[in-house]
Structure formats: C-alpha cells, structure tokens
Amino acid sequence: MKVKQLSIFIQNEIGSLSKPLEVLSNNNINIRAMSMADTSEFCILRLVVDNPVKGKEILEKNNFLVKTIETIAIEMNDTPGGLTEILKILKENNINLEYLYAFTHEKQGKAILLLHSDNINDLIDALNKNNVVIVNSQEIYDL
Q1: What's the CATH superfamily of 71-141?
Q2: Regarding beta strands 110-117 and 42-49, do their DSSP bridges make them parallel or antiparallel, or are they unpaired?
Q3: For the structural domain made of 2-70, what CATH number should be given?
Q4: What dihedral do alpha carbons 123, 43, 143, 57 form, nearest 10°?
Q5: Which of 98, 124, 127, 143 has the fewest CB atoms below 10 angstroms from its CB?
Q6: What is the spatial distance between Cα 88 and Cα 106, in angstroms, rounded to a whole number?
Q7: Location of each CATH 3.30.2130.10 domain in the chain
Q8: d(C-alpha 34, C-alpha 30), whole Å
Q9: Start-end of CATH 3.30.70.260 domains in the chain
Q10: DSSP per-residue string spanning the chain
Q11: Which residues contact 110 (CB under 8 A, 6 or more apart)?
C-alpha cells in the first residue's frame, strides 16, 4: 500500500539535477513521479521509480545521499476542486501534510496524488474512512 519514494539530497548548483537522473537512466531505472524542493544551498529531489530498492542502491553506490520515505498514493478527480476535496478530508481529520505532488495517468478524469505526513497510519485511516481510493504501490511502480 505504501509507496517508497527516494529523497535525494543534492547541491543547488547548475547541472546537479542531471547527475542522479543520469545514474538512474544508465541503470534502466524509470521515474514515475518527481518533485524538487530547494533552498539556497541544496535541493531535495523526490522520486518515485519503478524499482525503489535498486534505485536507492545504485544512487548510493554513486555517492548520493538517499533516504527511502513512505508516501501514500491516492486516486483523485482530475477536475477543478479535486484536490480541495482531499484537503477538506485531511483538515476534518486533523492530518498535517509535510508535502504532496500529483501527476496524471491513463485513467480518464483521474490523477494520482502522492501524500506524505508525519503520521502515515493516521493518514491512511482518514482516507479509508472517507472512501478515498488508495493506489497499490506496485500499480504506481508499473505505470
């Protein structure tokens, strides 16, 4: 159920983003979703890849600092207000998100939203209680 995300710490300088992506590409690791947050000195590159265990291992062998973080992938309506519906559920259940990012896929009218909270089990409970579709991790890896 929980999707393993790779969080890679890189320097905030020209060309630094391409380095870990080249390592993954050269080792046939396919990126399913990506987000980047930066400060003046470093970036956190968040990736969901088709093989997170192999991806982490390869990145670490190439001297990248990588953490595996558990996220939840849900299916939401890809319409105006789709995200607002989800955020309302989280607010009503007193769930604080650390971050989120989304992408569309082949299902017409649906998008995948990746969520991370400091209490992932409470997040899952709130989503289940409100009949939100939680996407199986293997389904995300196989996209």
Answers
A1: ACT domain (3.30.70.260)
A2: unpaired
A3: 3.30.2130.10
A4: -100
A5: 98
A6: 26
A7: 2-70
A8: 11
A9: 71-141
A10: -EEEEEEEEEESSTTTTHHHHHHHHHTTPPEEEEEEEE-SSEEEEEEEES-HHHHHHHHHHTT-EEEEEEEEEEEEE-STTHHHHHHHHHHHTTPPEEEEEEEE-SSTTEEEEEEEES-HHHHHHHHHHTTPPBPPHHHHHT-
A11: 75, 76, 77, 78, 104
Asked if 3 contacts 70 with a C-beta cutoff of 8 angstroms, the reply is yes
- Supply 92's token pair: 């009503």
Q: Are strands 31-38 and 42-49 parallel, antiparallel or unpaired?
A: antiparallel
Q: Name the residue type at position 45.
A: L
pTM (2 decimals)?
A: 0.90
